[in-house]
Amino acid sequence: MADATRERIKEYAREIGYIYNRRAASLRTSRSGIVGVVVHDIMNPFFAEILRSIESELDRSRQTFLLSNHYDQLEKQRTFIDTLLQLGADGVIMSPAIGTPAQDIRLIEDNGLPVVLIARSVEGAKVPVFRGDDAYGTSLSTNHLISLGHTRIAMVGGTDQTSTGRDRYQGYVNAMEKAGLEIRPHWRFPGPRTKQAGFEVAGAFLALQDKPTAAVCWNDLVAIGLMNGIARAGLVPGVDISVTGYDDLEEAAIATPALTTVWNGQREVGRRAARVLLDRLNGAEVNRSQQLIKPELHVRQSTGKPKER
Amino acid sequence: MADATRERIKEYAREIGYIYNRRAASLRTSRSGIVGVVVHDIMNPFFAEILRSIESELDRSRQTFLLSNHYDQLEKQRTFIDTLLQLGADGVIMSPAIGTPAQDIRLIEDNGLPVVLIARSVEGAKVPVFRGDDAYGTSLSTNHLISLGHTRIAMVGGTDQTSTGRDRYQGYVNAMEKAGLEIRPHWRFPGPRTKQAGFEVAGAFLALQDKPTAAVCWNDLVAIGLMNGIARAGLVPGVDISVTGYDDLEEAAIATPALTTVWNGQREVGRRAARVLLDRLNGAEVNRSQQLIKPELHVRQSTGKPKER
DNA sequence: CTGAAAGCGCTTACAG
DNA sequence: CTGAAAGCGCTTACAG
Predict the structure, then answer these.
(1) Which of residues 203-262 of B touch A (CB under 8 A)?
(2) Which domain CATH number covers A122?
(3) Which range marks the domain in which residue B89 is found?
């Protein structure tokens, strides 16, 4: 068939409103052009920034992406994975829910869907993982505070239930120990990773007898919430209490005061994860190991010398 | 077949890893269980809050939702709609991109997908619309500022290209005119609806000879950005300059100072839009008119009496 | 009531 | 090289 004829037919098809049926095609070819993306919560700007770069990467390969939040509920995650399998998705990018067993990852792969993990790893799962080097990251911010002269430093937000949480805490502990500083258990405020949570910690934090002069926060949201709480109590963040964040969201630079934080390479994580998945879809053999993206400290106005020594 | 037998078979199917093929089923029944949701940008917490309530509503009916951002690009929106048609989606909930013609909505409906609009309406499209009463909303915040004694009031952020933008500006104009106050063109700062944009307006705003004592902002993001900019310039928002937001995001209550804003019923919008779509999917005849959700003023600390008269 | 057959709209392997 | 047929995995209408 001549190209001109082909074009004329396409033109005519468009005219009469023909719609290509992807279900039928997919049934026949067992390729759907759908990639699943599962994260904790798209309302979290950290994931939103990752999603954007995944989106722009997948767009180029004309893959449709199917998004879901699992809110750290294994059940919700499994339901979504099931939906992906039923729809014949081609692959999955996921930030696994807390407690995801390696077995769940295996099951997806056994059903023919390549998996790429982001942000969190799963012990024992043999798939590519892209995440920041969290322990290194919090050691950067903790060391920065130590070098300013702080000795009583708190850790606010996060949980021990994720690899990220454990690593970020470890980085803080490493830096403190290396500097010979004391780590008091009640200086740690575990909790959700939201502004609201940071805001709510402020009261307890400021009421401590042996009140720390600085806080390493789990992420920017917690840090901004904590700063809001400190400001609400009539103190000045960055002057009375130094605060560091994590992620370097777009918002960090315009917070008041501008937030000292750790750039976590979310753009990079999304882009690389999407590319590796596309490579796997094209049958390429890829590196099934953990790829740590090196974080960087961005110093702004929320940290300064301690007021009292 | 007895129920017990049916259960045993299901059990066995699960055991051997049987996966129900929804593409095949959908090909046969022409029902896919997929609902498309298109918004401007999921990174915007306003849409994120709407999406949450849509999600929880659709979850109950076991509908999968396929999400996409159009970033106000008609082309991106059309591509996504095309994908939905090809996948045989059952319906669409959308916040239409700027410039969406009624024809585009018709085309979707003609292909058998019921459409429900949220947040914005499309002139001439005969489909249900759920949005806040924007003109009424900004008149609430403007009147609040007027009653505090402000006479020079600016409008920051937004665009005339959307029904929402025009209505919010109109509400401000109405309130100003009713109070016999002057509306100066350079007191209007149109612009994107982001924190960044609000932050960047602060400089020009504060440099005005006839500087307003208050600003009605397009949404909470713009308001929080503007407040950050005001604080960065050494002034105190809520004392030196009064600021109002719009939406009442979760964040508004923990901003510094806590933001006076207009609750915009995003939960309500999402919930009702999802329900009406589900009703349409079940063949029910629904009200194809615009449903305005009545906004409410939430007064907090970012507004006060004008400092100078 | 039960079971085999037809058909949804594609793609691909195969016969002519 | 071209065109008709088979088949992906379901559901439903129909014959027995």
Answers:
(1) 225, 227-229, 231-232, 250-251, 254-256
(2) 3.40.50.2300
(3) 33-132+266-294
Going by C-beta distance under 8 Å and a sequence separation of 6 or more, which residues neighbour residue B87? A22, A23, A64, B32, B34, B66
Domain count along chain B:
2
Instruction: Find the helix or strand (DSSP H, E) in which B293 lies.
Output: strand B290-293
Whether B19 sits inside 8 A of A111 (CB atoms) is yes
Mean pLDDT in chain A?
94
Tell me if B23 and A251 make a contact (CB, 8 A cut-off): no
Nearest chain A CA: its distance from B265 CA (Å)? 17
B40, B52, B56, B64: best to mutate for the A interface, most A CBs within 10 A: B64
Instruction: Classify residue A299: in a domain, yes or no.
Output: no
Render pLDDT for A53-105 as a digit per residue (tens, 0 to 9).
999 999 999 999 999 999 999 999 999 999 999 999 999 999 999 999 999 99
Buried b (16+ CB within 10 A) or exposed e, A233-266: eebebbebbbbbbbbbbebbebbbbbbbbbbbbb
What's at A241, amino acid-wise?
I
B259 and B288 in a common domain:
no
Find which nucleotide's C1' atom is closest to A29's CA: C11
Q: pLDDT, tens digit, for every residue of B21-47?
A: 999 999 999 999 999 999 998 888 899
A 72-131 near B (Cβ less than 8 A): 82-83, 85-88, 110-111
